[in-house]
Amino acid sequence: MKKQLIAAAVLSTLLSGAAFAQQATEGPWMVRARAVHLDSANGDSTGLGLSVNNKWMPEVDISYFVNKNVAVELVLTVPQKHTMYSNGVEIGTLKHLPPTLLGQYHFDMNGFKPYVGAGVNFTRFSGVNLLGGVATVDKNSWGPALQVGVDIPLSKGLYLNLDVKKVYIRTDVAAAGTKIGEFKVDPLLVGVGLGWRF
């Protein structure tokens, strides 16, 4: 009986060590590339019924795993051009660049790796051309960001990624130099892509 217990303990230790070694070989870095659909909340207090178009856009993120479960993720894209409308009538265009920094907690469920995240978004508006320059928006926005997602293993170091983020992006709107209200983009971002762990 003692021999069986010792053998079981040794086998368990070896298997645990092998599992740890496999996780360790993945490395602390992960890069994901996603196609993301931006769905704007389009809320405003200007009385003008402001909205921007929804769209697909590319997204890249870089994650660093502090340990098995905790990671820090930087989400990047290129400046995105939007058409702005007032009560459904086009009034111009603008661009926004929304890098986001998130802290994440990753779970391990039989190989599937769901995660949750929270952090901060900074958005820079540029190329603003509204009503021929009569209207403008505040160029900078800071706001919280929330995230849920899952990495599904495909092969060693390669994952299918599904990701949903809620990002709070708001900006003051002015006409002829006078503030008339606030526009809330507050998009829901739904993405699918691939991740590489190394």
> What distance separates the N and C termini?
43 Å
Q: Average pLDDT across residues?
A: 90
CATH topology: Porin
Strand content range: over 45%
Q: So what's the CATH class?
A: Mainly Beta
The shape is: elongated
Radius of gyration: 23 Å
Low-confidence stretches: 2-24
List SSEs in N-to-C order: HEEEEEEEEEEEEEEE
Structural class call reads mainly beta
**What is the count of β-strands?**
15
Number of DSSP helices? 1
Keywords:
single chain; about 200 residues; mainly beta; Porin; four-stranded antiparallel β-sheet; 15 strands; signal; OMPW
Write the layout of secondary structure elements.
Blueprint: H1 2-26, E1 29-39, E2 43-44, E3 50-52, E4 55-65, E5 70-76, E6 80-86, E7 89-97, E8 100-106, E9 113-130, E10 135-137, E11 140-155, E12 158-167, E13 170-175, E14 178-184, E15 188-197
Antiparallel strand pairs: 1-4, 1-15, 2-14, 3-6, 4-5, 5-8, 6-7, 7-9, 8-9, 9-11, 10-13, 11-12, 12-15, 13-14
